[in-house]
Amino acid sequence: MLRYLTAGESHGKALVAIVEGIPSGLSLCEEDINIELKRRQVGYGRGPRMEIERDRVEIISGIRWGKTLGSPFAIRIENLDWKNWKDRMSIYPGYENKDVAVTMPRPGHADIAGALKYNQKDIRNILERASARETTVRVAVGAVAKVILREFGINIHSFVISIGGIRAEINKRKLEDLINAAEKSDLRCPDPDAEKKMKEKIHKIQNEGDSLGGIFEVLATGVPVGLGSHVHWDRKLDGRIAGAIMSIQAIKGVEIGIGFEAEQLPGSKFHDQIFYSPPENGQIKKGGFYRRSNNAGGIEGGISNGETIIVKAFMKPISTLYKPLNSVDIITKEKVKAQVERSDICRVPSAAVIGEAALAIELAGSMIEKFSGDSLEEMKRNFLSYLEYLKNF
Ligand code: EPS
Questions:
Q1: What are phi and psi of 365, to 5 degrees?
Q2: Whose CA is nearest to atom 16 of ligand 1?
Q3: Buried b / exposed e across 89-103, counting CB within 10 Å, b at 16+?
Q4: By CB neighbour count within 10 A (0-12 exposed, 13-18 middle, 19+ buried), where does 38 fall?
Q5: 134 CB less than 6 Å from ligand 1?
Q6: pLDDT at 120
Q7: What is the model's pLDDT at position 40?
Q8: DSSP assignment, residue 262?
Q9: Measured on CA atoms in the order 238, 239, 240, 246, is the torsion positive or negative?
Q10: Which of 245, 351, 346, 240 is nearest to 299 (CA)?
Q11: Is 243 in the pocket of ligand 1 (CB under 6 A)?
Q12: For residue 223, how far is its CA from the centre of ligand 1 (angstroms)?
């Protein structure tokens, strides 16, 4: 079982995570994590905060001489902006200041529901933790999950499909081509024409004091058949993945495979017909059975079927608007305009990288469950014997 907790406020001293259940014997270094942190930070449409932060991880425990120990893995990422917030975010009493309290909730944010739930008269006590800054440390955990997955030939990728209603042309293009193009794009968009229009739209919407959302896709290649299970609701792989992706800040919809696009298709066109060829040429992870389409997105009955896992997610537009919407002051109860906090205009590209982390964590957890590894060696032994079994099925 792979589990983790994160802690940290957006403008607090640091973000931390403890990850439990990483097998021993895994080669891991801070750079494996820093690469992913950097990917999360880039993206046209981010706010000025990203000019302050240079996210880098410090590994505190769970590793010795470059290899994991199987013990809890603790990490820390400093918030460089904290130096500007020391008083407002002090952990000590004596700094209370009604003049800096946030009292005008933003529609769409956790502000009002959180203030009511936790009995807070300063919305900062909610927004600091609701902030997507928390995803920094989730991406760090995801980076570790990716290292585990790569040991078994599983790779995770993502790209942006649409921003503000502008769609990238991705049909009939090879996956490798889409991935390479996305990695070079400021918006993680594999279609340069769409990217140009998206940038123009982000720029326009920024001038109007508004914000934009969009859709991204996350994929996992090389996943073996048999992760997750059909036997219980909480063991279904698609349920776990959807939950993890939905828990990312501002995500409002998740689809597996072709998803809602298939609403008009009859079963005969929707389902992926089954073929067989002797298990060579990469078929070994599916025992020689394969499909020529992948509308199911690599999961059937809550179990991976050996095809690429495909997840799409919709991110709503950022809820902090520079031209704010109507709201009500939580103290005076008067009609006001919502709080304007420094924020991003569009962060769909960074959400795609966070989506990769969420998918990686769920898949690494499922691999650890299936191949029950206290050590990487044990996991690999079990994995190889499973492949042998699939070959002879
Ligand atoms: C966020 C608001 C902005 C974003 C932040 C998420 O931060 P600030 O209030 O400091 O300008 O930049 O995202 C990050 C800091 C990050 O690392 O992703 C919010 O309110 O959710």
A1: -60, -45
A2: 133
A3: beeeeeeeeeeebbb
A4: middle
A5: no
A6: 98
A7: 97
A8: G
A9: positive
A10: 240
A11: no
A12: 33
CA of 326 to the centre of ligand 1 (A): 22
Q: Is the CB of 307 under 6 A from ligand 1?
A: no
For a mutational test of ligand 1's pocket, the pick from 9, 11, 44, 49, i.e. the residue with the most ligand atoms closer than 8 A to its C-beta, is: 49
Report the C-alpha gap between 359 and 234 in whole angstroms.
16
Any atom of ligand 1 within 6 Å of the Cβ of 132: yes
Return the ligand 1 atom nearest residue 135 CA. Answer: 18
With tokens 């058949």, the residue in question is 225
Across 165-196, b (16+ Cβ under 10 Å) vs e yields ebebebeeeeeeebbebbeebebbbbbeebbe
pTM of the model: 0.98
Task: Answer whether 136's CB lies under 8 Å from 202's CB.
Answer: no
Residue 348 confidence (pLDDT): 98
Check if 128 has its Cβ closer than 6 Å to any atom of ligand 1. Answer: no
Closest CA to 189 of 169, 211, 219, 165: 169
Specify the pLDDT at position 42: 87
**Residue 10, token pair as written in the block:** 């957006």
Q: Which protein residue has the closest C-alpha to ligand 1 atom 3?
A: 343
What are the residue ranges in the chain where pLDDT is below 70? 281
| Amino acid present at 365 | G
Ligand 1 neighbourhood includes 343 CB (under 6 angstroms)? yes
Whether ligand 1 lies within 6 angstroms of the CB of 49 is answered as yes
pLDDT at 372: 87
Q: Residue 280: what pLDDT?
A: 80
Q: Where are the alpha helices (DSSP H) in the chain?
A: 30-41, 49-52, 111-118, 124-130, 135-150, 175-184, 192-207, 237-246, 267-270, 348-370, 376-391
And the tokens for 321? 């608007």
Instruction: Report whether residue 138 contacts ligand 1, using a CB cutoff of 6 Å.
Output: no
